[in-house]
Specification:
The structure holds two protein chains of two kinds. By secondary structure, chain A is an all-alpha fold. Chain A has 17 helices and no strands. Chain A has a domain at 109-321: Orthogonal Bundle (MetI-like fold), CATH 1.10.3720. In chain A, helix 7 (109-141) crosses helix 11 (193-206), helix 7 packs across helix 13 (222-251) and helix 8 (147-159) packs across helix 11. Chain A starts with a helix and ends with a helix. In chain A, 39% of the residues are buried. The model of chain A is unreliable at 1-46 and 311-322 (pLDDT under 50). Chain B has 14 helices and two strands; from the N terminus they run ααββαααααααααααα. A two-stranded antiparallel ribbon of chain B has the order 1-2. The longest helix of chain B is centred in the first third of the chain and has 40 residues, at 24-63. Classes of the chains: A mainly alpha, B mainly alpha.
Chain lengths: 322, 329
């Protein structure tokens, strides 16, 4: 029960946006009434002086969270000697040199890692979202014997820590000769019990059964209904599932660390961790690591800020549009 | 798995039972409708079976086995697997190195989880408070670290901990404090790792709590205000109890995550001598499996960690639910 409550809270931010609007409206209304009635109450509400203390606490939190990001931006402009000699937040002019050096490192190995990360996290998350949508829709919109068992088994999968199965996954894939390939990192992460669980909630909430029924009466096939009617309605929810899965893959360090031996297949995280290891004996590597960290985080931050918009799209709007 | 096998049969049986009363066309569509959900579930079920269920079963099987070496141990037939009973489990559970790693991770959790959730709750309440400013900026900034993977955040903080790079040590130097110990020294490295966890996790938990705060109808607060409750009283007496389910779930997920800490200490190792190869239980598993080539022992340790995770989740939910939801009886 608690799981449902919490997940809904995470997953349905669009509902809260609506409630925020409602809140502002009501406050405006109350202000009007307050003007006519209790003058003191209205006055207090209208001015609403900023609470300096709580604003300061919040800004301190923001500062703490931005500190390492600000540092990496500045540190990537320094050359190897400046890194350890000049003041932390004193910028220098070597950003372009560092990027060139990083690009030249073993014939552009770094950009290969970026491409690999895009394949693992991007392509992996898209396929995983599709698989989740398919399963979640089937669990939400059909009644069939065995449905309860399937859902319960999948739900148990949510609780199984993914890293625990990483080593046996390695051993099993080694037996079919798939370790040290793209597949060894892609395939195990295509299944996301949590994604299926979310997709089921979305399908149940966003796809009205009447619409499915009327499409059936008009002779539409089940897969046609899923692809052309249900998928677009589940759109905003699927973006959320995609984001969760994208972050999960991009964050999963242990699986590629175990599976891959060839550094041309590494994602950025394993690659940078290896570079840092070399830095222990070769400090010049540190500037490469820092510049590499900056360049790898930037696209993700941009993706996050851009996709944040999608988290607010109203579920109801999706259904009306379709 | 039994369900997969059993259901097409029972589905067909049901279709056959209906065929007496329905026209052939109706029967065909009914059967099709039973098969469609299974077709849609097929990719998920296959992937789940191959990449989750099978590895879990395989781990359990391996954990009860060991390798026997015949003769000189040369040639392909020299090594055979035999049943080991609970030998691997006993070996892990009596290994002081494993117990030390468990102790470290428990301490890590005790430091990290309350701090992270406390700050997340504080920030979410401030975001929800009426008179706080800079909300949009703060919300995005505090959530931003969620987009940074653990390896990269460990890398960034790792450099910020190095006295030669860190701005804090520069400040200490200006103040004339010379002997401030490095966070990467043996006694403090656990705080260094907890800080990385805090940085990466506080924003996500804040968003979870903030979202459930936003879902509360404002009439409740209006009523409390009319009754003369202060903003602080509303926050502590109304908002916190109302979002208790979200707090419980974030606590549970945070505890599970701390038990699995791996990327942070592994990334920090090149920067300090304070981290052993068995600092956390998962690092211990990794060492057994890949440095020592002892997959049987690694499997047993994995099972122990998984069972402990389940036990802790279950116990936590039991205790908390009795406390939070059992007040009526």
């Amino acid at each position: 029960m608690t799981i449902t409550n919490q997940t809904r809270a995470v997953v349905l931010p669009e509902l809260t946006e609506a409630s925020e609007d409602r809140r502002t409206l009501r406050r405006a209304g109350r202000r009007g009434r307050g003007g006519a009635g209790g003058a003191a109450g209205a006055g207090r509400d209208q001015r609403m002086p900023l609470a300096v203390g709580s604003t300061a606490v919040l800004l301190l939190g923001a500062l703490y969270c931005l500190l390492p990001v600000a540092w990496v931006v500045i540190a990537s402009t320094k050359d190897a000697s400046e890194l350890f000699s000049t003041f932390t937040f004193a910028p220098s002019t070597h950003l372009w040199d560092n990027i060139v050096e990083l690009t030249n490192y073993r014939d552009g190995l770094y950009w290969r890692w970026m491409l690999n990360t895009a394949i693992y996290a991007g392509f992996g998350a898209i396929v995983s979202t599709y698989v989740s949508a398919l399963s979640g829709y089937a669990l939400a919109k059909y009644t069939f014997p065995g449905k309860g068992v399937v859902f319960k088994v999948l739900l148990m999968g949510v609780l199984v820590p993914g890293v625990i199965v990483a080593i046996p996954q390695y051993l099993l894939l080694a037996q079919v000769g798939l370790t040290n390939t793209y597949w060894s990192v892609l395939l195990p992460q295509l299944i996301s019990p949590y994604g299926i669980y979310l997709a089921r909630i979305y399908a149940a909430a966003a796809v009205p059964t009447d619409i499915i029924e009327s499409a059936r009466t008009e002779g539409a096939g089940e897969l046609f209904i899923f692809h052309r009617i249900a998928l677009p309605m589940m759109g905003p929810g699927l973006v959320t599932i995609f984001l969760f899965q994208f972050v999960a893959v991009w964050n999963n360090f242990m699986l590629p660390y175990i599976m891959l031996g060839n550094d041309e297949l590494f994602p950025i995280t394993v690659g940078l961790s290896g570079l840092l290891n070399q830095g222990a004996s070769l400090p010049a590597m540190y500037t490469l690591v820092i510049t590499g960290a900056l360049l790898s985080v930037l696209p993700l931050i941009v993706l996050f800020l851009v996709l944040q918009r999608y988290w607010r799209v109203d579920l109801a709007a999706g259904a009306v549009k379709a | 798995m039994t369900a997969t096998v059993a259901t097409p049969r029972s589905g067909a049986g049901r279709g056959a039972g209906r065929s007496a009363t329905r026209r052939p066309a109706g029967r065909r569509s009914a059967t099709r409708r039973h098969l469609t959900p299974w077709m849609m579930l097929a990719p998920g079920i296959v992937l789940f079976t191959v990449f989750m269920a099978a590895p879990i079963l395989y781990t359990v099987v391996l954990s009860f086995q060991k390798e026997m070496v015949k003769g000189l141990g040369l040639g392909s037939g020299a090594k055979t697997r035999t049943f080991a009973g609970f030998e691997n489990y006993v070996a892990t559970l009596t290994d002081p190195e494993f117990l030390a790693s468990v102790g470290r991770v428990l301490l890590y959790g005790v430091i990290l989880v309350p701090t992270m959730l406390g700050l997340a709750l504080l920030f979410s309440l401030l975001l929800d408070a009426r008179r706080t400013g800079a909300k949009g900026f703060s919300r995005v900034s505090i959530f931003l670290p969620y987009a940074v993977p653990a390896v990269i955040s460990s890398l960034l903080w790792g450099f910020l901990y190095l006295p030669a790079v860190s701005p804090f040590y520069w400040i200490f130097e200006q103040l004339g404090w010379d002997d401030v110990p490095s966070l990467l020294s043996p006694g403090l490295v656990i705080f260094a790792i907890a800080n990385i966890g805090l940085w990466g996790g506080v924003g996500f938990n804040m968003i979870v709590m903030y979202t459930s705060l936003k879902a509360v109808p404002t009439e409740i607060y209006e009523a409390a205000r009319i009754d003369g409750a202060s903003e602080r009283q509303i926050a502590l007496r109304i908002k916190v109890p109302i979002i208790m389910p979200a707090l419980i779930m974030t606590a549970l997920f945070s505890m599970i995550a701390t038990l699995q800490v791996f990327a942070e200490p592994t990334t920090l190792r090149p920067l300090t001598n304070s981290l052993s190869t068995t600092w956390s239980p998962l690092m211990y598993v990794y060492r057994d499996a890949f440095t020592r080539d002892d997959i049987y022992s690694a499997a047993a340790t994995s099972v122990i960690i998984a069972v402990a995770t389940f036990a802790i989740s279950f116990f936590f939910l039991r205790v908390v639910q009795r406390r939070a939801f059992g007040q009526e009886d």
